[in-house]
Amino acid sequence: MTGQEYKDSLRKRNIIVYFKGKQIPAKEIPNNPYLRGHVNSAALTYDLAFDPTCEELMTATSHLTGKKINRFTHIHQSVDDLIKKVKMLRMISLKTGTCYQRCVGFDAMNATYGTTFEMDQKYGTHYHERFKKFLEYIQNTDFMLAGAMTDPKGDRSKRPSQQSDPDLFVHVVEKNDKGIIIRGAKAHMTGMVNSHEMLIMPTMSLKPEDKDYAVCCALPVDAPGVIHIFGRQSNDDRKLEGDIDQGNAKYGVVGGECLTVLNNVFVPWERVFMCGETDFAGMLVTRFASYHRQNYGGCKGGVSDIVIGAAAAIADMNGYAKANHIKSKINEMIHLTETLYACSIACSAEGVQLPSGQYFVNMLLANVGKHNVTRYIYEIDRLAHDIAGGFIATLPSQADLESPEVGKYVEKYFKGVDGVSTADRMRVARLIEVMTGGTALAESMHGAGSPQAQEVMYSKLANLEAKKKAALKIAGVKVED
Ligand SMILES: Cc1cc2nc3c(=O)[nH]c(=O)nc-3n(C[C@H](O)[C@H](O)[C@H](O)COP(=O)(O)OP(=O)(O)OC[C@H]3O[C@@H](n4cnc5c(N)ncnc54)[C@H](O)[C@@H]3O)c2cc1C
Predict the structure, then answer these.
(1) Which of 156, 189, 253, 443 should be mutated for ligand 1, with most atoms under 8 A from CB?
(2) What span, in angstroms and rounded, lies between the C-alpha atoms of 381 and 332?
(3) C-alpha to C-alpha distance for 420 and 428, rounded to whole angstroms
(4) N or C end of the chain, less CB within 10 A?
(5) Is 452 in the pocket of ligand 1 (CB under 6 A)?
(6) Is residue 327 within 6 Å of ligand 1 at its C-beta?
(7) Segments making up each domain of the chain, as ranges
(8) CA 294, 75, 187, 379: dihedral to nearest 10 degrees?
(9) Which residue is closest in CA terms to ligand 1's atom 31?
(10) 445: alpha, beta or left, given left = phi > 0 and alpha = psi -120 to 50?
């Protein structure tokens, strides 16, 4: 699909979306002021696939059909595919300055592909063949798929089956000869309201008593019983006002997340890819998380490029770009950004082949990379705040700039160096404000899992015993090989 075809296809859905207590009709979603930035951003992943200069990164050849497909629907067939994914993400972020949402479904498909293969090997089930059919459908339609892992989770000290409300994790409430019925909700769903399908996965490793919660399945975002409640963002009502005030008026901030409620939703068996196999829930979660953590040095690398560019531009506009401390701070931002990118490239270059034949990232490096994101983005953004000055927090509105009464004062007193308009200086300040503010920062912390989730993984994978042995040997302490 082209971006326009994608937008048109969104209007045809019967999706139920609520925002601020009111329903947004499906046909209005691509133009709704609160949603259109996220839709524009996702639409670019479609348009760029037709751009000859981006084609190599944006497209791939389907291993199922041999057809040319959008890379966001591809199963990685080589280390080169893994590296191209990261490069593609950085390239798109450099054009949008924000999330374009399609990586979540991409990672969910790659995780489900390999896990269903290994599940079938152990249990003689037919999940993998079913999943391949679903994948072919996604590749042929070029539909956007939301990756739905995170459950609301209620009391975090309790397992799914121990919760006082059983719906706090998505679970199977009924099975019949046609399929299953599921109930619960998925939280923080990136791009869900502008997707066509969702792929549901369990949120954590499960024990046998959590059998009903071991469910992986695909369903349309407008299946009967599905309701989406779109989330608020910092300063979102500015979307009803001038484009300067929005900072990134075309593409918005972060991915546009929602709570997706699944109220006794029927899923036919051909779309069920796990049902009760608790011992494979952990594999699915780990694979998805690692593929997803691989992304962050790519997408956040590109987003940080824009923050660096904006900080450097504001320093020019304010007349202190040549100061040594400013240059040094910009260099520090570059250093941190490339460190994030390096981890994503490294975990891809160290990728391995799975029994299914697909390629998978180096989990240790992917988790270390995402852990860096939970810290370095805050540091990059802190430096951007330092460089930009206090006016990113105190600037009047575009309406004041354009006011017949006070516009002349805003124009005069918010001016920087000669030759730069106040309006342009305000635009860059607002871009820095939105890209480094509340919603954007929290995404770097929690998207793809909070820091502890990564620490648990890399502490297990780092092989501390081997390091101890190596150190003892060098120190001359006798140790067994
Ligand atoms: C912008 C954004 C987009 C997202 N997009 C998606 C998406 O598209 N798909 C998707 O599936 N998910 C998505 N997520 C969800 C994301 O993966 C979760 O936010 C993340 O896993 C953290 O879960 P939580 O938000 O429920 O926080 P919590 O789990 O409540 O974590 C908060 C803190 O509590 C700690 N904690 C939690 N449980 C325990 C425990 N049992 N014991 C000790 N400490 C604990 C955590 O380590 C953390 O420090 C998105 C999140 C954000 C912010």
Answers:
(1) 156
(2) 11
(3) 11
(4) C
(5) yes
(6) no
(7) 284-463
(8) 20
(9) 450
(10) alpha
Instruction: Tell me the catalytic residues.
Output: 99, 103, 190, 257, 292, 296, 299, 443
By three-state DSSP, how is residue 389 classified? Answer: coil
Q: Is 153 in the pocket of ligand 1 (CB under 6 A)?
A: yes
Q: Whose CA is nearest to atom 13 of ligand 1?
A: 188
Give the pairing type, strands 197-200 and 145-148: parallel
Q: Is 454 in the pocket of ligand 1 (CB under 6 A)?
A: no
User: Domain 284-463 is classified in which CATH homologous superfamily?
Assistant: Butyryl-CoA Dehydrogenase, subunit A, domain 3 (1.20.140.10)
268 alpha carbon – ligand 1 mean position (Å) = 29
Residues in the chain: 481
- H-helix or E-strand containing 219? strand 215-220
With vertex at residue 296, the alpha carbon angle to CA 293 and CA 301, rounded to the nearest 5 degrees, is 160
Closest alpha carbon to 41 in 88, 84, 102: 102
What is the ipTM score, two decimals? 0.98
Q: Is the CB of 104 under 6 A from ligand 1?
A: yes
β-sheet bridge partners, residue 23: 18
Sequence-ordered list of residues with C-beta below 8 angstroms from that of 168, at least 6 positions apart, any chain: 151, 152, 153, 154, 160, 184
Ligand 1 center to 363 CA (angstroms)? 19
Cβ atoms of 39 and 17 closer than 8 Å: no
For residue 20, the 8-state DSSP code is: T
pLDDT (tens, 9 = 90+) of the chain, 481 residues, equals 999 999 999 999 999 999 999 999 999 999 999 999 999 999 999 999 999 999 999 999 999 999 999 999 999 999 999 999 999 999 999 999 999 999 999 999 999 999 999 999 999 999 999 999 999 999 999 999 999 999 999 999 999 999 999 999 999 999 999 999 999 999 999 999 999 999 999 999 999 999 999 999 999 999 999 999 999 999 999 999 989 999 999 999 999 999 999 999 999 999 999 999 999 999 999 999 999 999 999 999 999 999 999 999 999 999 999 999 999 999 999 999 999 999 999 999 999 999 999 999 999 999 999 999 999 999 999 999 999 999 999 999 999 999 999 999 999 999 999 999 999 999 999 999 999 998 999 999 999 999 999 999 999 999 999 999 999 999 999 998 7
> Is residue 189 in contact with ligand 1, taking CB distance under 6 Å?
yes
